[in-house]
Amino acid sequence: MSAINSLIPRQQAPSLEVATVGGGTWNLADQSPENFTMVVFYRGLHCPICSMYLGDLNNKAEEFAGKGVNVVVISSDQEDRATEAKEKWGLDNLTVGYGVDLDKARDWGLYISAGKGVSGAGIEEPDLFSEPGLFLVKPDNSVYFITTQTMPFARPSFGDILKVLDFVISKDYPARGEVVDHGQAAAAE
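^ thats the sequence. predicted structure below, dont judge the formating
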């Protein structure tokens, strides 16, 4: 099993390939965004907060595209549940991937939860599923931004991300959090 939070900014992102609702496959290695690929992992159909969160992203998808950001949303749900989420939540502007293996979710530093029965949305939780995460990956496939949660709430605002993209892009702002051994980094100063 991979260690939690083993992803480090400025290092290469783990491989990621998923089937998508409507057919086809999405592969991180095939992406060639102008600025970033934004990978948004969501909990699944059972999560009412995911519905609202991804609905907001769906409404802002064109703004992200205008800033040179490719967007994909992914869960460990199977095809039927991902298809229902896309249709029920109105995610017509988003590529929805499904079936991410939980070991792959761990490679991305995501936390895994056990299902506890029927959710607040009235839908049975899967036996196991990944918790949310949002990642910006640069065109060279290096990790730029990482955020993961152990709970469904308190996720980064897509509006806030849109606001800072102009600054980040115009200033070529570096990825932060890249120091792995702070003792060696301090000695090098």
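Residues 19 and 163 are 31 Å apart (CA to CA).
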